[in-house]
Amino acid sequence: GVFGVVDNRAAPAAPVDRRARNGYVNQSYAIRLIESYGFRLVATSEVNANPRDTRNYPAGVWTLPPDYRLGALHHRRYRKIGAADRFTLKFIKARNP
Q: Could you say which of 49, 53, 70, 72 is the most buried, measured as most Cβ atoms within 10 Å of its Cβ?
């Protein structure tokens, strides 16, 4: 079968947080984890990338749109940043014979 993943990308040098408490996931960790279940990465895409995302917000990824967890506080600033930087991955898993 085919398995697709889109998630909020942590900074590459950030330590792995398995619980993703700030909403950001380490892309390399996600790939290793999914491959450990027998899937094989076959494609990546930067279609959801956002270089304006600095990943250091008071309420984590939920500070940015569409959540705006801080409400009106700095709303215009966060709107200019836009949605979080996200990775897009495509995996396949071979069927058992």
A: 53
Question: Are residues 28 and 12 in contact, defined by beta-carbon separation less than 8 angstroms?
Answer: yes
Number of domains in the chain: 1
pLDDT (0 to 100) of residue 97? 56
Q: For a pLDDT cut of 70, what percent of the chain falls above it?
A: 98
The domain in which residue 21 lies consists of 2-92
Question: 55 and 85 in contact (C-beta within 8 Å)?
Answer: yes
Half-sphere exposure of 21 (CA within 13 A, CB side): 5
Sign of the CA dihedral running 15, 19, 24, 25: positive
CA–CA separation, 14 and 97 (whole Å): 40
Q: What is the largest CA-CA distance in the chain?
A: 56
Does residue 87 lie within any of the structural domains? yes
Measured CA to CA, the distance from residue 57 to residue 3 in angstroms comes to 30
How does DSSP assign 77-91, residue by residue?
Answer: HHHHH-SPPEEEEEE
